[in-house]
Fold:
Amino acid sequence: MPDVPGIKIPQRAFIFLWLVLTLLLPACDSADEGKQQKVRKETAPSKTTDLLDTIKQRGTLIVLTSNQPTTCFYDRDNQLTGPECEMTRHFAKSLGVEVQYRMYDSTKAVLQALREREGDIAAAGLTVNEKRKQEFDFGPVYQEVREYLVCHRTGKSILNKEDLAGLEIVVAADSNYLESIKNYTEMTWAPDHDLNTSKLLQQVAEKKIQCTISDSNLFSIERRYYTELQNKYIFAEHSELAWAFNKNGQKLKQAVNDWFRDYVESGARDAMQEKYYGFVEIFDYVDVHTFLKRIETRLPQYREYFIDAATKNGIEPALLAAQSYQESHWDRKAKSPTGVRGIMMLTQPVAKSLGVTSRLDAKQNIYAGAKFLAKMKKMVEHVEEPERTWLALAAYNVGRGHFRDAQALARKLGKNPDNWHEMKEVLPLLSEKKYYRDLRYGYARGSEPVRYVERIRSYEDLLKARFSSESLK
Structure:
């Protein structure tokens, strides 16, 4: 046994030291592994303690979800957003805890993770049905949807149950759709254990599979990206969506019920649904198809103007480009019967006030339009985004006078003039005599600004998806 340089260690003592270290090292490794197991155990919900107590003790609400437009998704700034994310954050805040998300690829995987107690709540667009209620508890129903049979638009028409014969349908495994279609012996169907419904819709659009089944809210979003999708048949009219959690959570269930009641009464649920779904019902196959083409053919020549003008005026470039498309379809020579002109369709007085010498000059028109929209936003600067922008767009379209009339009418009717969801109901009243006769600026086509805003929101959303990794955002 060689000596350590400079130190003489007796061979018997060296052997003794080696034996001690050999015995101690496995014990240390075992202790470390025990600590890791303890951490994992402490973060998992207990089978005996009420879930709410576990959550509060841990200081974190663990949410099991999936990556879809109707649940949780990463936006172009890599921030996790979406309806389920927004609601669960709101709930976690009411408990005074943080929130942590665990993402899964399918409904089947989410439910399996819930069974194995990898989290506290499954918030993944889950439909309440009797089979699931035997295994899990559910919170309040936060949304009702339909279940659609979705096929490629070139597929045959389905007018009745008999027309389903011969169809080959692929559905997400462990989804509620399996319950809906199990009695339809006319068609052939199979579960997919790897893909969620959003991915299956894409496969239908690409003709990789014949048909799938989707909730109506997800279909309304996805058909704007995949315009060849078409709803062919309705399997269920009133499917109810809610959060699921394990049975040992009566206190958690009560906390969710109490929170949801306040969430609805405060108007927060309506605001959330307006944010994510308020514009998706407006769908025109030809219009959307044409828009997607013009992103390639017309937008490039104006794109840098939109980016620069928007940035200088504190506006989203995609929003300004979307507004311009709604105004003129990106045609610098556009002209309306009322005399508004150019790519942003400016009136002569507005153009003159903003220093525009030629409304047919696309660059001048775009910069002036951005400045004018910024003025409209300043008019409602006390309102939080994104509603501030939606209200400003409505004012841009209908005019400041009529917009102020609509706000005054909203107050008279007991509605919130700073809430877009409620102003959508008030603005159309500007064309009804019993309302406009008492207003300062009188009659206006009030339905027009509502449609105007919703179309811009739809175009903006499509642009953001198209340029998610580029500079028009």
Summary: The longest helix spans residues 11-43. The radius of gyration is 29 Å.
